[in-house]
Amino acid sequence: MPEIFHPESGSPAQPSTRPGQGHFVADVRETPLAVVDSVNETEAPSSLWGDAWRDLRVRPLFWISATLILLVVVVALFPSLFTTVDPKFCELRNSLGSPQSGHPFGFDRQGCDVYSRVIYGAQASVTVGLLTTVGVVLLGGTIGALAGFYGKWWDTILSRVTDIFFAIPLVLAAIVVGQVFSNGKTVWNVVAVLAVFGWPQVARITRGAVISVKNNDFVTAAKALGASKLETLVRHVIPNAAAPIIVVATVSLGTFIVAEATLSFLGIGLPQSVLSWGHDIAAAQTSLRTNASVLFYPSAALAITVLSFIMMGDAVRDALDPKARKR
Amino acid sequence: MVRYIGRRLLQMIPVFFGATLLIYAMVFALPGDPIQALGGDRGLAPAVADQIREQYNLDKPFFVQYLLYLKGIVTLDFGNSFSGQPVMDIVKRAFPITFRLAMMAIVFEAVFGILFGLIAGLRKGKIFDATVLVVSLLVIAVPTFVIGFVVQFFFGVRLQWFPPTVGGNVSFESLLMPAVVLGAVSFAYVLRLTRTSVAENLSADYVRTATAKGLSRGRVVNVHVLRNSLIPVVTFLGADLGALMGGAIVTEGIFNVAGVGGTLYQAIIRGEPTTVVTFVTILVVVYIVGNLLVDLLYAVLDPRIRYA
């Protein structure tokens, strides 16, 4: 039997024999602990997501990245709100021209308006980044969840398949496959190639999260209540394993945007007719010595976009991790 | 330990076969005919195309082709490229250069990443920490090719501290700039990993015990904190060796290094499937072996891990 400690009677280990000291430890009701320990029993218990949201909304990093992401998405959806200049209207007499009214970033080598091209280039990056992330989460999430939840030979086979795809570097595979589609390539080809070779990381993380969730009591309870295996997985395990998947998806979104730019830079990504920051950076390479701003603006736009997704991932990770949470 | 290594080697076998099959299928079985592409827009005469197909075993069923290709890997005979050169010669020329480049990049990112990460982790929340974090985020967000251009322009063209391109002159000095550019992104990851890991371990019980028993700060940090913090970092570095060798395409292109990336890129563009398959296979093997080495290093770094 553990001895129950009563502040009023004093600790049994240290009897209150010294003169002038009734007890060594202050009554809980007299300490600030009383406030911390008080429980409002009528309040609904806070969920993981509720806690995370309370934590997120006081973080400047979250608000900065959320604002930037919102801005980039709005620019991608409605580029015409931000510029009236046609990005494909180019006049050679303006080649590498300096900024003037109506053209704040100047002109590139072909005499196209740099500001307008930066604005219209957002669409390709955001589309490829978002679609690839959706594809990777569906593909990697399904494979990882099946491997982690069903275990046994499912796990053995699916984990080896994951290892196989993991062993082939993303950009390398994308180049090899991308070469096949060199004629009549669309945004969808690039998304498909990146998704097919980008899923292993999500699969590994999902598998780990599902394994750590599936032994919880509520999963056993769901099974005991007669839920089928698939129902247990979809309704009880996956919602509770979602946090790490969301974090890795947010950060990889940035990675996929860089991968798209790299492929376009190498000339085997998006078709030349699609405006893309990768294409513009590749074209600006030759102008670096004479007019560095042509290289600077699309690079800065790309970097800010990627940065905002990475910062968002960082903020969400910190908010979801109880160890890192500050009270 | 021996049993563990054995099990890991056994696990490598399906990964090796799967990855090589996937690569082979990607290069040869996907739509698009590399043989017809040799002839350009006019196409080859059927007899010539058939002869080339026979020479490269492309007339046989896919699975037989794959097995012949596996036989070539095991006997280290990779056949000839379409221009008639033995692929082994191309491998011998390209891989040493890229291996040197990747090793220099790994040393750079390990030394500076761990050093800055350790200092930042020990002074979490201070000005040094904040600066280093912002810089690392920038390095991650700015694509490698932009970093490459800017570094090449400033240090190679403007200041002329280093040769702007490597070309035929492969020396430590000329490889230094490409190595730093190649390792830049991983440097930022190593830094952030080390920082998080050090900051977390500083509040661990065994660190308090070490301090309580009177060890000097230096010994606590170097022996107890750093050694335990290096475990995730080593995982990252091991996986990174393969990624760096394969991912050097952009960097090698910018600095004109005649290594794996440049050769592979040319081979893909020109439609040289035998060279592509060989190079990618070697890269995958490097990657798998790197990961195995990492797992074995764990035991050295963390005495709590015992392989049964």
TrEMBL record, chain A:
State one Pfam family annotation.
Answer: BPD_transp_1
What sections of the protein cross the membrane? 61-82, 126-149, 161-181, 245-268, 295-316
Q: Name one GO cellular component term.
A: plasma membrane
Q: How does it sit in the membrane?
A: Multi-pass membrane protein
Q: Please name the GO terms of the biological process aspect recorded for this protein, alphabetically.
A: transmembrane transport
Per UniProt, subcellular location reads as: Cell membrane
Does the keyword Transport feature in the UniProt annotation?
Answer: yes
Record-linked InterPro entries? BP-dependent_transpt_permease, MetI-like, MetI-like_sf, OppC_N
Stretches the record annotates as Disordered: 1-23
- Where in the numbering of this chain does the ABC transmembrane type-1 domain appear? 122-313
Cite the entry's keywords alphabetically.
Answer: Cell membrane, Membrane, Transmembrane, Transmembrane helix, Transport
Broad class of where this protein is predominantly found: membrane
Is Protein biosynthesis one of the keywords UniProt gives this record?
no
Family as reported in the entry's similarity comment: Belongs to the binding-protein-dependent transport system permease family.
Q: Which PANTHER family match?
A: ABC TRANSPORTER PERMEASE PROTEIN, OLIGOPEPTIDE TRANSPORT SYSTEM PERMEASE PROTEIN APPC
Q: What is this protein called?
A: ABC transporter permease
Which species expresses this protein natively?
A: Sanguibacter suaedae
Q: What is the lineage of its organism?
A: Bacteria, Bacillati, Actinomycetota, Actinomycetes, Micrococcales
From TrEMBL, chain B:
Give its localization.
Answer: Cell membrane
**GO CC, alphabetical:** plasma membrane
Mode of membrane association? Multi-pass membrane protein
UniProt keywords (A-Z) are: Cell membrane, Membrane, Transmembrane, Transmembrane helix, Transport
One GO term under biological process is:
transmembrane transport
Q: What is its main location?
A: membrane
Q: Where is the ABC transmembrane type-1 domain?
A: 95-298
The record ties this protein, via Pfam families, to: BPD_transp_1 (PF00528), BPD_transp_1_N (PF19300)
Show the stretches that span the lipid bilayer.
12-30, 97-120, 132-155, 175-193, 229-255, 275-301
Coiled-coil regions, chain positions: none
Q: Which family does it belong to?
A: Belongs to the binding-protein-dependent transport system permease family.
Q: What is this protein called?
A: ABC transporter permease
